[in-house]
């Protein structure tokens, strides 16, 4: 499994689209690592890296939502909190995780990312692009 960067993952706001491209590459690297049977130490490091990079991206989105008073910020941010909590919980129990558990996490991260981008981030991107257009006029 890998995530294909296509129109559904572009939100129409260049700063977010650029970050999503980098996150897709990172998630695909994680998916490949788990699929190839990498040892749990490497997987732990990859999940930690995912958490850090997603955290930075989420903080950037949070700042943009606050700056522009995004009306759906609370719901959007709750999605971020859930993913970060799930990744943190996985790190805590990784030693006991089976190969099936890891495959399920891979599936979850990929599904979460594509769904979140196609819905929540797309709405945010549209809002921010409109705000940017207003500022130019």
Strand content is under 5%
Which geometry do the CA atoms define? elongated
Radius of gyration: 16 Å
Query: Tally the helices: what do you get?
Result: 4
What CATH architecture label applies? Up-down Bundle
Poorly predicted ranges (pLDDT <50, ≥5 residues)? none
Percent helix: over 70%
Q: In the residues, how many domains can be counted?
A: 1
CATH superfamily: Hemerythrin-like
Question: Mean pLDDT, rounded to whole units?
Answer: 88
Intertermini distance: 44 Å
User: By helix and strand content, what is the structural category?
Assistant: mainly alpha
What is the H/E string? HHHH
Biggest sheet, in brief? none
CATH class (first level) name: Mainly Alpha
Supply database-style keywords:
137 residues, Four Helix Bundle (Hemerythrin (Met), subunit A), elongated
Q: Which helices and strands occur, and which strands form pairs?
A:
Blueprint: H1 14-35, H2 40-68, H3 73-93, H4 99-136
Helix pairs in contact: 1-2, 1-4, 2-3, 3-4
Brief write-up:
The protein is mostly helical and 137 residues long. The chain has 4 helices and no strands. 19% of the residues are buried.
Overview of the structural elements:
This protein is mainly alpha-helical. The protein has a single domain (13-136), classed as Up-down Bundle (Four Helix Bundle (Hemerythrin (Met), subunit A)), CATH 1.20.120. It is 80% helix and 0% strand. The chain has helices spanning 14-35, 40-68, 73-93, 99-136. The termini are far apart. The mean pLDDT is 88.
């Amino acid at each position: 499994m890998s995530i294909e960067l296509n129109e559904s993952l572009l939100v129409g706001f260049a700063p977010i689209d650029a970050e999503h491209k980098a996150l897709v590459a990172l998630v695909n690297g994680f998916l490949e690592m788990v699929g190839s049977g990498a040892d749990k130490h490497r997987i732990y490091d990859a999940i930690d890296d995912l958490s850090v990079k997603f955290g930075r991206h989420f903080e950037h989105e949070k700042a943009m939502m606050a700056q522009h008073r995004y009306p759906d910020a609370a719901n959007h941010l709750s999605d971020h909190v859930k993913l970060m909590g799930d990744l943190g919980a996985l790190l805590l129990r990784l030693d006991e995780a089976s190969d099936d558990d890891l495959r399920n996490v891979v599936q979850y991260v990929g599904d979460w990312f594509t769904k979140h981008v196609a819905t929540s981030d797309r709405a945010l991107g549209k809002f921010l692009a409109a705000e940017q257009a207003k500022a130019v006029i």
